[in-house]
């Protein structure tokens, strides 16, 4: 009888060719109330017209990318994906305005999150 491997039900094998979908919500450590303030600010000035729900999703990040294009020379797609280029430009902007002291490395770690919270609290 040939040997067959079994996978637990519901487990799908991962292959290197598969792509990971972007996270739908990236609040960078903000509370729901802080994220709502950011969304209100985006709605006032950056053409955000989705729900004020405290969930920084694709439309929130599209509006934030529009802001970064204007304020920080963001030159990538306005696609709402919180990716490497968006993070790097956000870090440069937070360094200039909200006390971020870390590397411009595209990693949204604790320093990036703390500076983003200072920004949100200033709204």
- The global form is globular
Q: Would you report the number of β strands?
A: 0
Helix tally equals 4
- In terms of structural class, how would the helical and strand content be classed? mainly alpha
Gyration radius, rounded: 18 Å
Are there runs of 5+ residues with pLDDT below 50, and where?
A: 2-22
Mean pLDDT over the residues: 87
**Which percent band covers the strand fraction?**
under 5%
Description:
The protein is mostly helical and 123 residues long. It has helices at 32-45, 58-72, 84-97, 110-121. α1 (32-45) packs across α2, α2 (58-72) crosses α3 (84-97) and α3 (84-97) packs across α4. The chain is globular, with a radius of gyration of 18 Å. It starts with 31 loop residues before the first helix and ends with a helix. Residues 2-22 have low confidence and may be disordered.
Task: Give a short overview.
With 123 residues, the protein is an all-alpha fold.
Q: Any key phrases for this structure?
A:
123 residues; mainly alpha; 0% strand; globular; disordered N terminus
Topology:
Layout: H1 32-45, H2 58-72, H3 84-97, H4 110-121
Helix pairs in contact: 1-2, 2-3, 3-4
């Amino acid at each position: 009888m040939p040997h067959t491997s079994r996978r637990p039900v519901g487990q799908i094998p991962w292959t290197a060719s598969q792509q990971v979908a972007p996270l739908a919500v990236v609040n960078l450590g903000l509370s729901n109330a802080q994220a709502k303030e950011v969304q209100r600010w985006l709605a006032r000035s950056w053409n955000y017209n989705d729900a004020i729900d405290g969930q920084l999703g694709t439309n929130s990040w599209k509006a934030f990318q529009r802001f970064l294009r204007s304020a920080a020379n963001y030159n990538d797609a306005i696609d709402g994906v919180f990716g490497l280029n968006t993070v790097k430009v956000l870090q440069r902007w937070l360094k200039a305005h909200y006390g971020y002291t870390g590397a411009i490395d595209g990693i949204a770690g604790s320093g990036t999150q703390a500076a983003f919270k200072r920004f949100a609290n200033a709204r």
